[in-house]
Design goal:
Length: about 270
């Protein structure tokens, strides 16, 4: 555990970038070998749009990283946050608890709020508009949403009282988890089901990307599935009934055009069909 802490305390930016590139490469290869759906689309064009939006997310996070660092340092110096208020506990338990809390406050709750707040949903539509979900869809976020997500992450770090090594560890696990659960990957049904009791499995997250309510408003989890099960937002749907996208933006010229995707938050609001 000490070795992990030491590594993530000083993890170079290059290594963090390698986790992103290697993760996409690995899951892209796997999903081509064991696909869940035989998607009929121009894979490279689709990836190009998602890679551009991923790049904007990276730039925004890089430019604002100092805020995250300052927030973590402030929490540590001032003994602020849930972890700081707890009595001394074993390091392994401290780490697991911290990761769970970061997942709840910095990921699950913000995701839930995005779906329930009209203004934030306008930004989040870009992610849900993808009708060809694969591993490149993981970081398909409008630049405006990337700023919102960063803000919630910072709030999570402060409330949890997370040291920076834990933040970097969580972000790395989050990156791998989202690439995994967005991948067009076919796991044995029992394996996927058993996984979904601990982490967000591919089939579990695919339900969240079904194009109609109430399934769109379910399975908000990022890494751990416990929060959906605990708060009653967990739902299942047979994979043969899943249709990707969002019912308000199903036309290819809307969801497969980078120019239009960037404009979606500023367009007239459309009511869902259900």
């Amino acid at each position: 555990m000490n070795e992990i802490i030491a590594y993530f305390s000083t993890i170079p930016p290059l290594h963090r970038s390698l986790f992103l590139v290697c993760g996409i490469t690995f899951f892209w290869f796997i999903e081509n070998t064991f696909p869940l759906f035989q998607l009929k689309y121009h894979k490279w064009k689709h990836a190009g749009i998602n890679f551009f939006l991923t790049f904007t997310t990276l730039v925004i996070n890089f430019c604002l990283a100092f805020i995250l660092l300052k927030s973590s340092d402030w929490a540590m110096v001032n003994h602020f946050g849930i972890l700081e208020w707890l009595p001394k506990i074993p390091l392994a338990l401290y780490t697991i608890l911290g990761l769970l809390l970061l997942d709840l406050i910095g990921a699950y709750l913000p995701h839930f709020i995005q779906h329930k707040t009209k203004l934030l949903w306008r930004l989040h539509i870009v992610h849900h508009s993808d009708t060809w979900i694969d591993t490149t869809s993981a970081n398909r976020h409008h630049p405006g949403e990337s700023i919102i997500r960063f803000t919630f992450t910072t709030i999570g770090v402060l409330l949890v009282g997370s040291p920076m090594w834990m933040v970097f560890l969580y972000q790395t696990l989050s990156l791998i988890a989202t690439q995994f659960n967005h991948a067009n990957l076919s796991l044995p049904k029992k394996v996927d089901t058993y996984l979904s009791y601990i982490v967000v499995s591919p089939n579990m997250h695919k339900v969240h990307h079904h194009y109609m309510l109430p399934y769109t408003d379910s399975n908000y989890g990022n890494i751990f599935s416990i929060w959906d099960r605990l708060f009653g937002t967990f739902m299942t749907l047979s994979t043969d009934k899943i249709i990707y996208g969002i019912d308000t933006h199903m036309k290819p010229e809307e969801h497969n055009s980078l120019k239009n995707l960037l404009k979606i938050p500023f367009q007239k609001r459309r009511n869902p069909t259900s």
